[in-house]
Structures are given as structure tokens and as C-alpha cells.
Design brief:
- The protein is mainly beta.
- It folds into two domains: 41 residues, no CATH class; 101 residues, RlpA-like domain (Barwin-like endoglucanases), CATH 2.40.40.
- Helix content is 4%, strand content 44%.
- The strands form four sheets. Strands 7-11-8-10-9-12 form a six-stranded mixed barrel.
- GO terms for molecular function: lytic endotransglycosylase activity.
- InterPro entries: RlpA, RlpA-like_DPBB, RlpA-like_sf, RplA.
């Protein structure tokens, strides 16, 4: 598992001296005023977005760009999926024609950049032009227009 949390610590001390200082002609010249300003410790954390289903940082491999996604109708709630589990429109699941069951996939809306991680639990969609069917909850989370029935997405597969 590849975790890429990097901490950068920046500690800088800036010394500003007004007036004359140091040694001039081997004589010490008094410093009229010292002002020492210390910069704050800056901590920068670089982290990946933690998606809805996956609570750890994972790496995703591109699968397909500009794929057409839609969502399940409410009538399928409670029905058995191809994997044998019961479908629930409130979970983060998806149907795909080829990806193995249990595969976690990040689906990103190409219009607004929002993404969600879903698990493939079913086969479909059975419409030639569509690539993936999302549960209604997952679809609505990334949709820019809540009234639409489809959108263009980028599909990325989680690498173990």
C-alpha cells in the first residue's frame, strides 16, 4: 500500500538589524536596535482525497475516459445482482460489463471534477452506448445536474 503523506517543515529565522553593526576598523560599534523576527513553522501535508467508500489512500490506474454513466432505477432496489448480493440504491455500487466483481473503481464527473469510489457488484448496463451504471446515491453525489439521467465520466481502477 502506497501512502504518500509528506511533511515539509520550514523553519526560518530572519534577523533584521537596523543601524551599524559588526566591526569597523577593528572597533566595535554599538548596535542601536535589534529586531529579531522568527518565521512561523509551516507544516504542509500533501494528501490524496479520501473517497466515500475507501478510507485509506489508494492508487488508481486509468481505465477509460469520456465513458457514459447512468444510474439504476428505483425498481431494482432489493433485487439480486449478478454477484449474488442484494442491490441497494443507497450504497456505493456499480454495474460494469467486463470488470470483475469486487473491483473498486473511482468514477469522476468530467464536467465538475467530483469523484466517487464504487464497487462493481453487477453486470450491465445493457445499452450499447453506456459504460457503467452507478447506484443512485453515487450518481447524485457527483452529478452537476441532479435531473439528468447520464453524464460523461472518467473511470479509474484501484490498483492493489
Amino acid at each position: 500500500m502506497k501512502k504518500s503523506i509528506t511533511l515539509f517543515f520550514l523553519l526560518a529565522t530572519i534577523t533584521l538589524v537596523s543601524g551599524q553593526s559588526s566591526v569597523i576598523n577593528k572597533q566595535k560599534v554599538p548596535v542601536t536596535k535589534d529586531s529579531i523576527k522568527k518565521a512561523k513553522v509551516v507544516i504542509e501535508i500533501q494528501e490524496k482525497k479520501i473517497d466515500s467508500l475507501v478510507a485509506v489512500l489508494e492508487v488508481f490506474k486509468p481505465y477509460k475516459k469520456q465513458a457514459h454513466a447512468s444510474y439504476y432505477a428505483d425498481k431494482f432496489t432489493g433485487k439480486k445482482t449478478s454477484s449474488g448480493s442484494r442491490f441497494d440504491n443507497n450504497k456505493y455500487t456499480a454495474a460494469h460489463k467486463k470488470l470483475p466483481f469486487g473491483t473498486k473503481v473511482r468514477v469522476t464527473n468530467e464536467v465538475n471534477g467530483k469523484s466517487v469510489v464504487v464497487e462493481v457488484t453487477d453486470r450491465g448496463p445493457f445499452v450499447k452506448s453506456r459504460e457503467i451504471d452507478l447506484s443512485k446515491r453515487a450518481f447524485m453525489e457527483i452529478a452537476s445536474n441532479k435531473g439528468s439521467g447520464g453524464m460523461l465520466v472518467t473511470i479509474e481502477v484501484m490498483v492493489d
